[in-house]
Fold this protein.
Amino acid sequence: MTDSYVFNGDADGLCALQQLRLAGAPPGPLITGVKRDISLLARAQATAGDRVTVLDVSLDVNRAALLALLEAGVSVRYFDHHFTGEVPQHPGLEAHLDLSPTVCTSLLVDRSLDGKQRPWAVVGMFGDSLTDEARALAEASGLAPADADRLKELGVAINYNAYGETLEDLHVPPVELAGEMAHFIDPLDFAERSAIARRLTEGFHRDMALARQLAPARQAKGAVFFTLPDAAWARRASGTLANDLAKAHAGSAVAIVSPKSGGGYLVSVRVPRDSSISAEAFCRTFPTGGGRRTAAGINHLPGEDLQKFADAFESQFRAD
């Protein structure tokens, strides 16, 4: 039997994978990409008797590939917290799915392992912006506040690294990063000793210094809209910047639009947890849109639809 691993290239996907590998998961091919590259399961080369583990990519987006694998006799473990649609009922599918806004894939893997690699779960949670939940889990695990702060910095840097239009935009390709992480049982050790970890943190801070100079392109009560320049640092910054701007504009929905090199735009949307309107539902009104209730995006917004999106965003989220 061959094991393959299909995972999002962000902190949640990587830290979920890291937990499984440290817990004894067999080695096998790694299939991943930039954060927005989520139609990954069709790339799995598996035959009857093999097993594929899927981490942090939408079941709904990968439904056709999942059904094809199951029908071919491949067993699939699926850990995710994104929109699922109808979950297939098949004896070959082991589903760990939870769409709750306070859950991420790293936490689902942590639960399945009874917390055996919990510090890495905390890193993934911090990277996925579950800051309060990550701190509570870190405290319950006996981690000192200073260590929790270091894990937060690491999680944010790993997550930030996944944002970009292509692998060439990233500081470190996710497969290379996964290979480096595999050498470290303790994420604090990884943060202190790994040259790649330092590269991620330093690159993040350089890009954020540029991002802090941005001003809103449009702003209304409850809805703040930013456009980024056509530059690699801006494509990297879009997702993490969305989280930071959501905190800076607490109570408002935030949209960030980043030009793609081949035309059109990438879009990131963040909404407050108590918003009556889901970011995922709003983004799904546009082709290639999806995500979670509080954090979603559009993988390709045609240039001619930019004004339509901006108007719809403001109309949908503007406070009365």
Notes: The two ends are 58 Å apart (CA to CA). The chain has a mean pLDDT of 94.
